[in-house]
Amino acid sequence: SPDRAAPERAPRIYTRTGDSGFSSTFTGERRPKGDRIFEALGATDELSSAIGLAGEFGSEKGHTFVDQLHKVQCMLQDVGSNLATPLSSAREAHRKRTSFSEKPVLELEQWIDSYSEQLPPLRTFILPSGGRSSAALHFSRAVCRRAERCVVPLVQAGEADPNVAKYLNRLSDYLFVLARYAAMKEGKEEKIYIKPEP
Q1: DSSP letter at 128?
Q2: Chain segment 71-114, per-residue pLDDT in tens
Q3: pTM of structure
Q4: Number of domains in the chain
Q5: pLDDT greater at residue 151 or residue 2
Q6: In CATH, what number is assigned to the domain containing residue 103?
Q7: DSSP code, position 89
Q8: Torsion of CA 114, 167, 169, 149, to 10 degrees
Q9: Mapping DSSP to helix (H, G, I), strand (E, B) and coil, where does residue 65 land?
């Protein structure tokens, strides 16, 4: 009877399928874990985690841009789907499910322009600083640059959509501008580069 049905078990987190040093792409292809596709996926995952941390700091300060950061994290899931679907082995059905358009790139550009208009002009190099929200956004920007460096070779090899690399490029600019905006809104001082005395 339904009353006596055994409780459903949660699926196991571990699968043991990667113990031999290989993992699967979305297309089912098995590749070494050191493959550049998994390097790019790992960097993108790390980026989302860094943005999540920045979002938590921003939320503590009541910043309205936190919703944008959540949307970015969702877009990074789509970035990962595209990267996990190497075009050399993807069928048309795979490509349709994981395609990445230019629309998110254009949205980032709009956000960048909006925040840039509110900031004082940048006349010197600034260091990652300006309070916890700002510093975490600067850290996210640095991780984003690394993710972009991992993705560009995949795009150049025809394995990933060029819009994925464009998105990461604009995202690092967005995170930089947002870091400055967070410091300004919180009234925190941005530390500037001072050339050491010889």
Answers
A1: S
A2: 999 999 999 989 988 767 656 665 666 678 899 999 999 999 99
A3: 0.85
A4: 1
A5: 151
A6: 1.20.1200.10
A7: T
A8: 160
A9: coil
Tell me the pairing of strands 30-32 and 22-24.
antiparallel
Q: Which residue range forms the structural domain that includes residue 108?
A: 31-186
pLDDT at position 18: 56
| In-domain check, residue 198 | no
Residues, the chain: 198
170: closest CA among 146, 197, 127, 141?
A: 141
pLDDT for the residue 47: 98
- pLDDT (0 to 100) of residue 6: 56
Confidence (pLDDT) at 1: 47
> Residue 50: helix, strand or coil by DSSP?
helix
Burial 137-153 (b: 16+ CB within 10 A, else e): bbbbbebbbbbbebbbe
Distance between alpha carbon 27 and the CA centroid of its chain, in Å? 22
